[in-house]
Amino acid sequence: MINIKSSVFWRFGGVNFFYFAIWTLIITFLPLWLNKEANLDTAEAGIVFATMSIVAIILEPIYGIIQDKLGLKKYLFAFVILCLLFIGPFFEYAFIPLLELNVFLGSIIGGSFISLCLYSGVGVVESYCEKSSRANGFEYGHTRLFGSLAGGAFAFTGGIMFVHNANSIFWICSISALLLGILLWSIKVKKSDYQKKDDSQNEKPNVNKESIFELFKNKSFWGLCLLIIGSASLYDVFDQQFPNYFVQFFPDSRTGESLFSRLTSTQIFIEAGVMVIMPWIINKIGSKNGLFLYGLVLFVRVVGTAFTDEIWLLSFFKLLAAIEMPLMLISIMKYIVSIFDIRLSATIYMLAFNVAKQLGVAFFSVVMGKLYVEIGFQNTYLIMSVTIIILVCIGTLLMKSDKALSDLTITKEKVRDMS
Predict the structure, then answer these.
(1) CA-to-CA distance for 125 and 64, rounded, in angstroms?
(2) Which of 37, 213, 223, 303 could be a cystine partner for 385, CB 3.0 to 4.6 Å?
(3) What DSSP element (H or E) covers 65?
(4) Residues 181, 23, 277, 279: is their CA dihedral positive or negative?
């Protein structure tokens, strides 16, 4: 049940709305901008995306440790917002001159800045919101659906803006960051509120060398990392260049860009609807099964794209992403708090999800970028689909199931109720 009476719930909904408005605009239109405005080919654009991932790999463990020590303090979140405020000026005045000076250097600087805002920053945003949802008694997925609503709205309007003025979308990002900062400042979370739930009352800092080393001995941790590399990493790599692949089937690139933005908008609105019921579904099937299903849907989407050049089928496979994101976002959060030490939730999320994901993205962005040039999109998609299914299956086999834990909890509750 969505907690519509809680002002904190609505404010966190707003936080998700404005952050993922920025995320959608950058992730959706950056590949097109790099190709159309910056004149980078797929291999050169791959350097930008690889740099984004490498910077995230370095920062995410640090961010995770800091966020677990901070608890619900907002300092790290505020730093991410400060970076977001400079998106408009950076893309308008700095990025292209840097690329013209030196493509490699410009790509590294640009990728590093975008990573501070997105690839590194998203872990801070999502782990903070997840901790806050448990502390205040609402489902993380229900506030995260506001992010999907923002994604749908801004993917549609962003497409219109991009066609008329490609740089305008980046100034909208800066304005959204300002509103996000005001909203975050307005949220007051008292310590007593944070500790009132049984599952969060012992959530005191527990990040030290011993706890990290113990985590690295956990087979489920490494299984989760492999599954994430095979699914979330390749999800991002697939989406990096898919807009350019999609647009090439149209005689006029503007027509293709416009349709792609409408498809993305539709996909994310569907995603928002799915997000409402996804916590209930994951509670029923278990988060491990949810993560495996996420990987399976991605496999179908990539292999399907490899075997068709029909626009309507490509559009269908694009819309399948509306199922993937809710599956992944809800499952990963629930799996972490079910299987691992809850006091390390931000650290584990940063390591097992974001760092593992960005390691995969950094590697596959370069490899797939070269393959696009050498063997074409469709053959590359076939290689990608085989990689997905292998890594997802191996990861799933290594992971401990949370379904048994869920069933045990339900049984204990029934016994307690009967007594």
Answers:
(1) 11
(2) 303
(3) helix 42-70
(4) negative
Task: Say which residues have a Cβ less than 8 Å from residue 170's Cβ, sequence separation at least 6.
Answer: 25, 26, 87, 88, 90, 91, 92
Residue with tokens 């992944």: 328
Q: Of the candidates 131, 37, 124, which has an alpha carbon nearest to the alpha carbon of residue 78?
A: 124
CA nearest to 152, candidates 246, 237, 261, 256:
261
- Burial profile 385-400: b = 16 or more Cβ within 10 angstroms, e = fewer: bebbbebbbebbebbb
- Per-residue pLDDT at 290: 94
- For 181-203, what is the mean pLDDT? 59
pLDDT by residue (tens digit) across 25-80? 998 888 888 888 888 887 788 788 778 878 888 888 888 788 777 777 888 889 99
Is 0.90 topped by the overall pTM? no
CA distance 16 to 149: 9
Place of tokens 């100034």: 171
Angle ∠(280,281,283) on CA atoms, nearest 5: 65
3-state secondary structure of 118: coil
CB neighbours of 340 closer than 8 A, spacing ≥ 6?
A: 215, 218, 220, 221, 348
Nearest to 210 by CA among 341, 79, 121, 333: 341
Summarised one tens digit per residue, pLDDT across range 288-324 is 999 999 999 999 999 999 988 888 898 999 898 889 9
Question: Can you list the domains of the chain with their CATH numbers?
Answer: 7-190+205-413 (1.20.1250.20)
Whether the per-residue pLDDT at 382 is higher than 60: the answer is yes
Q: Residues 6 or more apart from 246 whose CB is under 8 A from it?
A: 256, 260, 314, 318
For residues 250 and 148, give the distance between their C-alpha atoms in angstroms, rounded to a whole number: 28
